[in-house]
Amino acid sequence: MPDEPTPQPAPSPDTGVPGGDPAGTPPRPPGEEPPTSWQQLALTELRQQRTELEEEIRQLEARRDQINREISSSFAGQADAVARRLKGFQDYLVGALQDLAVAAEQVDLVPQQVLVAPSALDVAAPPAGDAPAPPQPVAAAGLFSADEALIRERLAAFQGQPDFYADPWKLRRSLEAAAAASLDSWFLEQGGRGAQPSSGSRSRNALLTAAAVAILGELYGDRFQTLVLASQPERLGEWRRILQDSLGLEREDFGPTSGIVLFERPDALIERADRLEERGELPFIVVDAAEQVVDIPILQFPLWLAFAPGPGELIDDEELY
């Protein structure tokens, strides 16, 4: 009996087509790349974004370094100049407000009682010899030659060690030899009336003026008043600060009824000096080096000191203020 063919089992759905993928996927042709998955696409995109962000960070860091260099080179100097101007104006403003408060306290708000004076015909005229003599103004230039020894002794003492605990209105700082020579010339050669070369800065000029005030205080006591002329509040604030420190003064020592008065306008200073002379007192006028013109009426007073600026000093002062 011939052999009967052995029956082959039918392919199950799980085995698929012979020679194909077990899952039923047709075979991949040779040489074909596998398809890119979505994870790889996302990773590529993230890497590209990171590269762009790193480039932007490098650009921002370079810009930051450039801004820091610009700030360190220019802003520091400007900020220092602005701070000095604000400090000077603050000192001047505080002093001006205090002067205003003192003046307001002296205003008499109570109405004065009206008194009827008797007629001149009813009052016997006093003898001519009993009439009080009008106050005589203090002579200035004529006295300095007689006080030469005292002036030079004080100028020599000012060049020694500073006396930080000296009484008010006494010099508490040391004076340079050049400043002492200028004061010697101003007192003994110019008779207290004339211009002197600036010391190079407002602080040095104010220190020289403080030394002059200390000497005049010994010569005239409280019968003189210092009048400082500077056309800007910041400059007056610097004058106030140096004079206050050099002479051991308080803020109350600056004002219309005190020893030192600060002026921005020459006409107000001249009016004040006239009133002092009418009362028999002596005005000591000081003109800041930044004042390019000295009014002629100032030259008529017996005591005045004007500082002549050096080369470039006015330009530096204008840039600062």
Order of helices and strands: HHHHEHEHEHEEH
Let me know the average pLDDT: 79
Biggest sheet: strands side by side, in what order?
1-5-4-2-3
Biggest sheet architecture: 5 strands, parallel
How many domains? The number is 2
CATH class designation of the largest domain: Alpha Beta
* Gyration radius, in Å: 45 Å
CATH architecture of the largest domain: 3-Layer(aba) Sandwich
Distance between the termini: 133 Å
Low-confidence stretches: 9-25, 109-123, 137-141
Gross morphology:
elongated
Strand content: 5-15%
Helix-strand layout with pairing:
Blueprint: H1 38-106, H2 141-144, H3 148-158, H4 177-189, E1 193-197, H5 202-220, E2 224-229, H6 233-247, E3 260-263, H7 266-278, E4 282-287, E5 303-308, H8 313-320
Parallel strand pairs: 1-5, 2-3, 2-4, 4-5
Helix pairs in contact: 1-6, 3-4, 5-6
What can you see in these coordinates?
There is one protein chain. With 321 residues, the protein is an alpha/beta fold. It folds into 2 domains: 39-100; 139-320, Rossmann fold. Helices cover 47% and strands 8% of the residues. The chain has 8 helices and 5 strands. It has helices at 38-106, 141-144, 148-158, 177-189, 202-220, 233-247, 266-278, 313-320; strands at residues 193-197, 224-229, 260-263, 282-287, 303-308. A 5-stranded parallel sheet has the order 1-5-4-2-3, with helices on both faces. Strand 2 (224-229), helix 6 and strand 3 form a beta-alpha-beta unit. It is elongated. It starts with 37 loop residues before the first helix and ends with a helix. Mean pLDDT is 79; it is low at 9-25, 109-123 and 137-141.
